[in-house]
Write a structure and sequence with these properties.
The protein is of the alpha/beta class. It has helices spanning about 5-10, 45-55, 75-85, 85-90, 90-105, 110-125, 140-160, 165-185, 225-230, 270-275, 310-320; strands at about 1-5, 15, 25-30, 65, 190, 195-200, 210-215, 215-220, 235-240, 245-250, 265, 285, 295-300, 325. Strand 12 and strand 13 form a beta hairpin.
Length: about 325
């Protein structure tokens, strides 16, 4: 078996890891919504599903290639495990940890977070050591090229991530700072388990820094890994001065095997209500329940004119009473 970019793989019998099947796919090992993977192979990450597949000979299929329609940590790690099952088994726990760090922003070993940071840095045109011309390619070609390069790099990261310190050190330091602020009580996380809600309060003077999620560049005052590693709540409400943002975590978009998070509630109506009252110059927006990690937030870079506590109460009410609006399970 070999890796082929997604379009090329469509012409031969293939296994897709983490994405959606194409016309040549004979098996899909993906936790994506309603994708139809065998229930016996389900796992929280697509990488865990690959290991379940390797453990289950009766599900093995004849395939010439493995592929994915996008590039991220979970897909990459799962593909590596399928291509190199012997070496992968020796690092099984670490590889699943890397996949969870990339997809969910959680980790057991700091090494897993650092490997995820390296993979993200390599996929970021602002920090990547890869040839610059790759990032001018159409996305499908870029995703294929990143897989080729990172499948070569990933085995070396498992045992020698310190050699790539320049690619992970800055983000690792930001993660450490965020963890320290939480430890000192300067960033607080209050859970409401009945709503699957974590309320995160961040000091108003804390500035944003570059971080990565899903190998993509983001800006955040507190590193999301620090928050997600402290709470299993999948609805995260971040408060900072006059700014407020609610985000549904990625765990609510995919099919988890270990638990069922609270289903997503459509907050479009709430955004409309807030806009009818907002006088601060911004516009409240909800990204939509079908987005990977949708947010309810105020666009425009301004603080809200509405009382924060009152908005929080309204969000809590909608989360408690709103009907489920997204069901990822088969």
């Amino acid at each position: 078996m070999r890796f082929l970019p997604y379009a090329q793989a469509a012409g031969v019998p293939n296994i897709v890891v983490d994405g959606a099947p194409n016309q040549g796919t004979v098996l899909t090992l993906s936790h994506w919504p309603r994708i139809g993977s065998p229930v016996e192979l389900k796992g929280d990450t697509s990488t865990a599903m690959v290991f379940n597949y390797l453990d289950s000979p009766r599900f093995h299929v004849e395939a010439d290639a493995v592929s994915n329609n996008h590039f991220d940590e979970d897909g990459l790690v799962g593909i590596l495990a399928l291509l190199q099952p012997g070496p992968a088994e020796r690092y099984r726990d670490l590889l699943i940890d890397v996949a969870q760090a990339g997809d969910f922003g959680v980790f057991r070993q700091r090494l897993a977070a650092r490997i995820a940071f390296v993979l993200s840095a390599c996929a970021d045109p602002d920090s990547s050591p890869l040839p610059g011309h790759l990032f001018s390619l159409p996305y499908a070609e870029l995703a294929g090229a990143l897989h080729v390069h990172m499948l070569d790099l990933l085995p070396r990261l498992l045992t020698g991530v310190d050699e790539y310190r320049a690619l992970w050190e800055a983000e690792d330091s930001r993660l450490t700072l965020s963890e320290e602020l939480i430890e000192r009580g300067l960033i607080t996380i209050d859970e409401q388990p009945d709503l699957d809600l974590a309320v995160v309060r961040i000091p108003e003077d804390l500035s944003r820094h570059r971080v990565h999620r899903f190998t993509q560049q983001r800006l955040a005052e507190c590193h999301p890994f620090a928050i997600h590693n402290r709470t299993a709540c999948t609805r995260v409400l971040v408060l900072q001065g006059g700014r407020l943002e609610l985000q549904y975590r990625y765990e609510t978009w995919v099919q988890l095997a270990s638990r069922r998070p609270a289903p997503r509630v459509d907050l479009t109506e709430l955004a409309g209500e807030l806009n009818r009252e907002e006088t601060g110059g911004g516009r409240w927006t909800f990204d939509g329940v079908d987005r990977i990690t949708p947010r309810l937030h105020l666009e425009g870079g301004v603080a809200t004119s509405l009382p924060i506590d009152a908005i929080v109460k309204r969000i809590e009410h909608h989360l408690k009473t709103g009907p489920p609006a997204w069901v990822p399970y088969d």
